[in-house]
Amino acid sequence: MSATASIAAPLASSETPEAMIARLGRAGRLAQRTLAGLDAPAKAAALHAAAAALRRAEPEILAANARDVAAGQANGLTAALLDRLRLDAGRLAGIAAAVDQVADLPDPVGAVIDANALPSGLAVSRVRVPIGLIGIVYESRPNVTADAAALCLRSGNAVLLRGGSEAVHSNRAIHAALVEGIVAAGVPAEAVQLLPTQDRAAVGAMLTAAGLIDMIVPRGGKSLVARVQADARVPVLAHLDGINHTYIHAAADPEMAVAIAHNAKLRRTGICGSMETLLLDAAFPGSLSVVARLLDDGCELRGDARAQALDPRIRPATAEDWDTEYLDAILSVAVVDGLDAALAHIAAHSSAHTDAIVTADPAVAERFLDEVDSAIVMVNASTQFADGGEFGLGAEIGIATGRLHARGPVALEGLTTYKWLVRGTGQVRS
Amino acid sequence: MSATASIAAPLASSETPEAMIARLGRAGRLAQRTLAGLDAPAKAAALHAAAAALRRAEPEILAANARDVAAGQANGLTAALLDRLRLDAGRLAGIAAAVDQVADLPDPVGAVIDANALPSGLAVSRVRVPIGLIGIVYESRPNVTADAAALCLRSGNAVLLRGGSEAVHSNRAIHAALVEGIVAAGVPAEAVQLLPTQDRAAVGAMLTAAGLIDMIVPRGGKSLVARVQADARVPVLAHLDGINHTYIHAAADPEMAVAIAHNAKLRRTGICGSMETLLLDAAFPGSLSVVARLLDDGCELRGDARAQALDPRIRPATAEDWDTEYLDAILSVAVVDGLDAALAHIAAHSSAHTDAIVTADPAVAERFLDEVDSAIVMVNASTQFADGGEFGLGAEIGIATGRLHARGPVALEGLTTYKWLVRGTGQVRS
């Protein structure tokens, strides 16, 4: 099997990017209608077949990936980017296992949201349906090709994938295997399409293909997401990063505060759920221990004047620090006077991803939950739990920080919409 | 009370449209935070006070409306537009009563969507919260000023209103009364703001105020909605019109078919839920009566060759007719061979608003409900039931034909989003 065998039609040299997207979009929409007619076991079988095909295609996929890695080295990609790009047998097995896992998640399609019998005698209900054709624009991690395709297919959506140029051979090989698997299980190949070109104009055509593509999900760094949001006419489910706060209230358990602050910042510093700002209540007696534990483990702390007074190792924070997502072992620290001051700081600086309080006072906890207007608000837990898997969703396409359609961890339900069903017995409206 | 008294600050001549929207947007967001802290009875009291203020301001509002109507006559507005614009004591009483009615609807804010206890010991739940600041861009009907403000306020949202120039004095007078009422009940005036200018550039600035305005709802004709969709960077909840089908299946009850087709087309021809295309199954024996009843009542029918053969009064349809929303006593009629042909016609031509089947065969009905991918799918009922009030929602801000966030009739729930609440006992992530 050639790595590009599944790209149905090569890009005709005379075809404009808009014409190509229109062609792929129509093919995807047609395939989605078939997909919408499949029941949950049929879709699960297709995904299990895709996972098996990924395992069988290990030699081709790893060879394709080696080409990408070699090109990346030649082009001077950073070690971090090369690590994101690189596949080995273990990582590929993980990608296939994730596809199997998505196959076994409950199918959201057909679920009844609510139902109502009306005075007119009409029975009205809302049921979940797929969104339609979803465009995914992503960067260097080739696992997104399989993850996003699996989540879309499980929820009855067709998908149009556009990965980063650094991973082009890896993505084509993974895509070819996925298509081989789903076709063998009776799903049209066009349910999972990969753009046959890395031409940037094709991305622009995707973003403006309103009516043809129903939703765009950008997955990558801030610059990618910002570009997609600026250019898109198609609705965007945006996965931005997190400037997340943990507020240690006066009545926090000191040991819990130390453990949660340490975990929220240092468990993994590069994920969007990591804490970026620590707010210490002036009346909390354990602040010295909280900052000492972080400093002792190599975290750089940047504080306001009162925070700096806690430990000589704390450097001064600038105004920008309160609005900075470090994604590193760096943390801004402020001392605040009570809950209201903490809420005001969070309202002013949070990116509305995940904010947490540590307190033993239930009334304070409930006020924090009520008044913090972020996608995820936590009490007495590490912000690093902000994850679809940890929330029991089985998988996630990302964390949405926008306010519409879906918010916080977005999984299969977020890839559906609904329709209203009305069952009558001949009613006409007076 | 002057009709413009409530416009807090006049437009400084040196202020750019962007600066003005930023100023109003910040004020609206601040007011929304206060609004979000009010409980359901407090919001209801504010709306009842607003309704009472509308009644008290009847002389001012009707005088302002008379100015608009006179200007409209001088500017040659059509009789239909003048009728939409014109207020009298009865219509104003209806507007105030609608505000009272929205005040008494259940408050969606705070409702728990779902809750889950996880193996980590975390308790995760999703609760409804307001969206934030909503922009409404609308045309000549001044009742939208009160309706939209009431729906937004009931659901805890601040609103920024921009009405049509034809209704500028009416809108200012209605807005002034609303603000007088809510302020007396303790809600900040900036929770309901009306743009102090009709400058079109200000609309452009609203549409691009991402991060400041959370959602735009255009209410008006297709050209307004299309312009908003083309220019907006802020998410748009679009209320388009309907190319709605009624398919009369072979097993339809003939009398029911006549009654439903007649009602779906002719009860009110100008609403978005009216039928625009009638699909008659070739095997349905009652087609003659269905078309005769419509023709006898003055409806123009445009048919394909087989439909024309039913009655000499049926004119030939052109290709465009199948994609035309008449909003008039005109109907396109096609004869189709069975359910699959009807589904294919609907998939090709429906605007995904509301489509209906008339059939006595439950299996056929369920297939139609399952396979038609429109916001509202009906069995044995008139498409004119497509309405938030008829669906038991109490009121609606419109019918959404987009696929994301909210679909079909959109009422208070569609004006909310959710946040995730996580209650822990000191959990850190391993």
From TrEMBL, chains A, B:
Pathway: Amino-acid biosynthesis; L-proline biosynthesis; L-glutamate 5-semialdehyde from L-glutamate: step 2/2. PROSITE patterns: PROA (PS01223). This is Gamma-glutamyl phosphate reductase. It comes from Novosphingobium piscinae. CDD domains: ALDH_F18-19_ProA-GPR. Keywords: Amino-acid biosynthesis, Cytoplasm, NADP, Oxidoreductase, Proline biosynthesis. It is found in: Cytoplasm. Coiled coil: none annotated.
